[in-house]
Amino acid sequence: MKRREFAALATLAAWPLDRIEAQVPAADPALFFARPQMTGAAFSPNGKRLAMRSRNKEGRAMLSVLDLETLTPFPLYAAESDDVQSFFWVNNERLAFTLGDLEAPVADQDAAPGLFAVNHDGKNFRQLVERQRAWLKVGGDVRNLQPWNTVPLSADTSTQGAEMWAFRVDAYDGKDYGFMRLLSLNTATGSAREVDAPLHGEHWWFDRGGRLRLAMTRHGNRSALLWRADEGSAWKTLREFDPYVDDGNLAVVGLGVDDRLYVAARQGSDKLSVWTLDPDTGKLSDQPLVRSPQYDVRAELIQREDRVLGLRFAIDGEVTQWVDADMNALQQQIDKVLPRTVNRLSVPRSGAEPWVLIESFSDVQPSVYYLFNRSTRKFTKLGAKRPDLDAKNQASMDIHWIKSRDGRDFPVWVSLPKGSAGKNLPTLVLVHGGPWVKNATWNWDAEVQYLCALGYAVVQPQFRGTQGLGAAWESAARKQWGRAMQDDVADATRWAIAQGIADPKRIAILGASYGGYSTLMGLARDPDLYRCGVAWVAVTDLDLLYGAHWSDTSDAYKRFGMPTLVGDRVKDADMLKANSPIHVAGRIRQPVLLAYGEKDVRVPVEHGRAMRKALADGGNTQVEWLTYPKEGHGWIEASTKADFWARVATFLAKHLA
């Protein structure tokens, strides 16, 4: 690893506010899936400098530091064959960061992220964690590097010292972590000391003095939230729960500098709200700080060193609720200047500097970064995630609430081709993976935008099991793969037809992972709805989820989670078989595009090979088969993305003509 010298960056204030429109045709996948330009920024604690991650002329994500007094950028670090990944300030003078190749497919990823530290002026560069992936080492390490399985947790900028938090994975079976050791790592010397913490810890929280006060543990199917009043006190259990089936009932938001513990909890409601929790009594506050009638609220705590400023969370879009009056007024001012975007404001943790970082984004605009000076009232554009894209040419997305056949309300996102009348369109039902994840929010999405640019309406049903919509909607998905979960997808499709959006004769279903599973089940269960399907890295055999010992699904999840969520392998064997695509393949007569990564350890390629054979045995001669030798569970390499999506475009054009 060596540092490289770079020419000085262009003066930031001279960057044009509107970029030249891309000359690439709108439906070229290379445009939509290109590497981003600027992907993050963070103030030093005192607000005198801003660290920025952006792509250099060689195409690598580099780290630079902007002096906010002169607005002069200094190129701090880049590598020839790696990208800067995570980065954070350790104190006002020093930063830490990790490395990785963001375009390397799974087969070519042969190094850990490591950890490095450097002063803002490029001095005192030090590697802290080695990158060679080896559990056993021969001989001594004269560089005093921590082993590769040491992972950065955060920097404690309240102390202004050289220490940062990290953890070391001391037990790992290739699928699940068994024991993690909490460390305090000195970024100046490279030495580390173990921090006294509960066994089987997975998450840790520290107070403003840098003391460990809260920990989340997991052992088997039991998790616990533990608290101690100070470093000399015994640990007290605040909550215990099953992490596989009821971990959504309480989530830690953070420890406030006001010495209050903020949590998201249901407290007798179907929806998560944000409360304060008294660790001495275990009781929640009388009223929630933030709640939504339709969505769970899992918030991020925003604070300075002297006070809590607000809570940031995502419902259908991102929202910041400020408790600080000055920040609330500032948000309103910024929103008037930038009225059609979500404007995420960040301020330094300490000091009296006037700077505000604004990350501005929407459904048609990837993130654009601005600096705002509260004293001079001037904006400076720092850069953009995708400066080659024009927001005026992107498709907007809207949310609609519909009813399932069993009377439950759930949301469906609809994106329409730019300039279309929104009626009688060829339509793609895009089913998300997971399935227990929070899916779409009001944001720019490369896949959706590309498909809209091809002329399709894109419908994204937030079927039962989708997180963020309440406990009842999540639990309604238990043992419902291919059943009620599939009904929701079909109900959303029929709703789009009834609304006049979808041409009933030109609808395709597509998705990855669970979305690929749903694609195949949709073709089998609802052949009247879908003319064709695209399924990539798709689950095809529910029993194989249990039996594929070479997958990365942990034994604990198979034992404690899947029997409740998906179905018991023995007791529910008939149900699992009846709802596995390979066993209903004979009912699929429509054209199918199947694609897999040969290095996928989440859904091994055996799922696809079994499905391909089952379709052929069932007489389906319209199957297109793709494998990518170096890819895993999803596409990383730029050439893979371009090839796959170009093939999808050709496939859809052929079968939805």
UniProtKB/TrEMBL annotation:
Keyword Cytoplasm attached: no
Domain Peptidase S9 prolyl oligopeptidase catalytic: 442-656
Assigned keywords, A-Z: Hydrolase
Annotated Pfam families: Peptidase_S9 (PF00326)
Keyword Cytoplasm: no
Residue ranges of coiled coil: none
This protein's name: Prolyl oligopeptidase family serine peptidase
Species in which this protein is naturally found: Pelomonas caseinilytica
